[in-house]
Specification:
- The protein has nine helices and 14 strands.
- With 299 residues, the protein is an alpha/beta fold.
- The strands form three sheets. Strands 6-7-8-3-9-10 form a six-stranded mixed beta sheet, with helices on both faces. It has a four-stranded antiparallel beta sheet with strand order 2-1-4-5, with helices on one face.
- Strand 1 and strand 2 form a beta hairpin.
- The chain is globular and about 75 Å long.
Length: 299
């Protein structure tokens, strides 16, 4: 069960925005959905929530096709925000929740809970346009979750937020997952995806170019990162066998290497050359993988 996309394709005239995309997103999971601008993420989201009809393929949520009858169990935070600036927060949320089939009293109870949780209870009677961008963002998030959806789609949910508010929203997302919501999460901030998602898909030109569990994706990438800080010249490592990238810093060097055995031979090479303050072998970051995979298919 969960969200299933089978060979989903969307064409606009001659342009194919999404090309035979198949994904399974289990219930109660945070699934990372990545891609450069124009990769097809937003088009996919609009098809999932039923705003756009696929040209071909099927989308089902817990075995049921998505249409207007399922809109009450789906929440969507779009990348381009869309609140009514002149409305008070309370009126805005009540109106949106009524569209989702909620009663006013239940909505107000949920609204109090969320405003309290986001440390902004005094905003209930403020107009949206009176709030800062970051606080408008909180209200937009609130509008997406007020009806306790079974499926929640978050498109860049943390953009424009300061670190404290990012943590507040991140915790809210994790709690929603724990309470049974399936979450599809798109972000350009790779560290957030690494922190929160077990499975992910990287899109490029409407197709998935990387898809699987974060662990498997990192393992199959094959390369590792090696950080060396030393009180001697490390520039010779730029051309060292097995080094694919080298970035020099005032403290030393960050290397991308083809495997652990290269780290071993580099260590033998530098022992005795001077004082080594740091020698750390790390898994590749999702950012490394994204740049290599999404960048490679641009060329």
């Amino acid at each position: 069960m969960g969200l299933i996309l089978e060979n989903v394709t969307k064409r606009f005239g001659k342009f194919t925005a999404v090309d035979h995309l198949s994904l399974k997103i289990p219930e109660q999971e945070i699934f990372g959905f990545l891609g450069a601008n124009g990769a097809g993420k937003t088009t996919t989201f609009r098809m999932i929530i039923g705003l756009l009809e696929p040209t071909a393929g099927n989308i089902t949520l817990n075995g049921k096709r998505i249409d207007y009858s399922t809109s009450s169990i789906i929440g969507y935070l779009p990348e381009e925000r869309g609140l009514y600036p002149k409305l008070k927060v309370k009126d805005q949320i009540v109106y949106l929740a009524r569209l989702r089939g909620m009663q006013k009293q239940d909505t107000l109870k949920q609204l109090d809970y969320w405003l309290e949780r986001f440390k902004v209870p005094e905003y209930v009677d403020k107009k949206v346009e009176e709030l800062s961008k970051g606080n408008q963002q909180k209200i937009q998030f609130l509008a997406a979750v007020i009806h306790q959806p079974k499926l929640l789609i978050l498109d860049e949910p943390f953009s424009g937020l300061d670190p404290v508010n990012v943590e507040l929203l991140k915790q809210a997302v994790v709690d929603l997952k724990e309470a049974g919501t399936t979450i599809v999460f798109a972000s350009h901030r790779m560290e957030h995806v690494e922190e929160m998602c077990e499975n992910l898909c990287i899109m490029q030109n409407g197709k998935p170019i990387v898809h699987g569990t974060l662990k498997e994706i990192k393992r199959s990438f094959g390369k590792k990162n090696l950080v060396i800080h030393g009180d001697f010249d490390l520039r010779f490592l730029e051309d060292y066998h097995g080094v694919t990238k080298a970035k020099f810093t005032p403290e030393g060097v960050h290397l991308q290497i083809t495997g652990e055995h290269i780290a071993e031979s580099i260590l033998k090479e530098i022992v005795g050359k001077g004082f080594i303050r740091k020698f750390v072998l790390e898994e590749p970051s999702l950012n490394d993988i994204f740049i290599e995979k999404a960048g490679a298919s641009y060329e």
